Structures are given as C-alpha cells and as structure tokens.
Amino acid sequence: MRIAVVGAGIVGLSTTYALRRYPVSVRCYEAGTPMGGRSRGGTRIFRLAHTTSSLVRYAARSRDGWTRWERTAGRTLVGRESTVVSGDDAAARYAAMRAVGVRCGLYSDVAAVPGLPARDGTPGPFLVDPAGGVIRAEATGEYLAAAVRRSLQLDAVQRITVRGDTATIHSAGGAWECDSVLIAAGTGTAALAGPLGLRVPAELEHAFRFTFPLAATAGPDGGLLPPLRCWIERSGSWKDGFTSYGHLAGPGRWAIGGHLPAADTAWGLGPEEARRRAESVVTTYVAEFLDDIVDPNPVDTVYCAVTPGLGDGVHVDRAGPVLAVWGENLFKFAPALGADLAAAVAARGLPDEVP
User: Fold this and answer.
1) Which CATH architecture fits 2-39+140-203+311-347?
2) Predicted model pTM
3) Residue 107, exposed/middle/buried by CB under 10 A (0-12, 13-18, 19+)?
C-alpha cells in the first residue's frame, strides 16, 4: 500500500512516524522546511486542562505518548513546569479534569500559586495542571524528522486528483499514484482539499508570539526559584476581552501571545501592520500587568497564520482515498493524533477517537 502525507509539520511528521509500524510505503511531502509553518517556534504549552472531558482524556493519552517518545529519543520533550489557567473558565476546566480522575488543583488567591509572573491581586480562580509544561517543539521536530528522513520528500504538492480508489499527487517533482492520502498542510490544506469536495475553512488571520527577558528571581535561601509555570491568563482583567498565554521559551526568557480583536488580526492588514498592532498591545500588557520582565521590548518574535475560531478540537473529513485534518492548538495532541491518523489513512477510514 502506498500512502502520501502532505505536510511535514507536527501532525504530518507524527503521522508519518506512526506509519512506520505498518507494512506500507510512505512519502511525506513538504514544500518548505519541516516544522516551518504553523509548527514553527522552539516551544509550545502542554496541558491536560480543557473544558470537556473528551479533550482531557485525549490530552492524557497524548501525555503518555510524549513519555514514550522521550524514552526513544533519549531527551526531554515536555518539561515538568506545570500549567496554570486563570480566569472565568478555570472552574469548568477543573470540573472536566476531575470528572476523569486527573489530578489538579483550584485556588482563589494568586499567592497560593507561586511560579507565575503575576502581580499581587491578579484575579483568579487559578487551575493548576501538574502534568502541564513546556513542549520542546524544535527538539520534537528534529527527533521526528530524523526518524522519518527516508520518507521525507522536499517537494511542493500542487494538486491532488482522484480516480476510482486511487489518488495521484501532482508535485513539482512529478506525479505519484497512491492508495491513500493525508492532507495535513496547515494553511495549504484548504486549497488542496477544496477541489476534492472537502470543506476545510480557508479563512486566515495573523498571530504573533513575543519573547521578553526575565529577571533572575531568588528564593528565600538565595538560590534561584524553580522555573516559572506555563500560564494561560483568561481573566480579562487588564483589558476587557484580552487574554494571553505565556511560558518559558528558554533560560531567562518568557514567551507570550495575546488574543486580539479580529480587526487587529485580519488577513487583509498584512503581516507587518498586524505585527505592529500585536506588539503594541502585548508590550503594554507586559509593562502594566506582569512582574519579573526586565524589559517590555521583545527580543524575539514568532509569526504564523492561523484559522480563526477553531478552538482546541481536531477536525477531519474524507473524500474517497483522501483524508484531511485541520485545527489549532494541535501540537500537544501530536503522539495520539499521529497514531490515530496513521490508523485511519492505512484503513482508508476516519479516526475513531479524535475529539
């Protein structure tokens, strides 16, 4: 059986990695650099904290998968910093986690949750997810790409055609007929899937994450405090409707992104104007709302294009031998999602367990 995976971001690579267990021939096509699209950047946040029990279970299964990857890779891929979610939906996430027996805590006072760059009086409640932490995204991509290097095809897919039970990949390097296809091409998924009748949303908006230098904070014994927890701040108390997510991007560096109004992320603005607006808001937020930031001027910026309004779920659709997958915040699900998509594309069906 011949299988094409289109896209070598985290979803495409993890699926190709899982397909090594199957008696199939696989080509993983990538037009640019592996992990160079929506998966770009050195770090991400892992969390079990979701608002539905199905997503919590899927994230827990993925956490087990990350542990298996770590054993094989011989390196840490998800840190042990833990993740905190604050604001109105913290209680709902706590309830969803407790409903499936996941360990977590809920606190009303920021003083009970050390390890956040939060000022005294920052409003809660605060959900603490002990299984959360910083995903070493770049290290993960290096590990997966090395493991599937014989399947990688650095070649731009131009279109996919279907004839009967087979599909043909038309790329800059030629045509390849195969039995099953997974489109996991990020922003390119809609253009490839649309002509096949797959209803993948094509709307895009700009998203930025900025990194700031942190102060070295000493503990009561004079030593440095443990690494800061990942923090998803959803209280909206700095500015109505503004929420953020932040985590350690490296020693002494805090990466943070903000959720801005649609008018400030609209695709028609272009990346430069959208970056200017995002940086203006986030740097002001850092200066006025966070502690431990040495300088509210970013030292690094990560940009990607995202699909608005998708939230945390996984979306799939099939047309004949072609399966498409899309979504946002998929990085944390990579081990489980890759395994489920591999099974689905090998069986030419739909994945059974994705939430």
Assistant:
1) 3-Layer(bba) Sandwich (3.50)
2) 0.94
3) middle
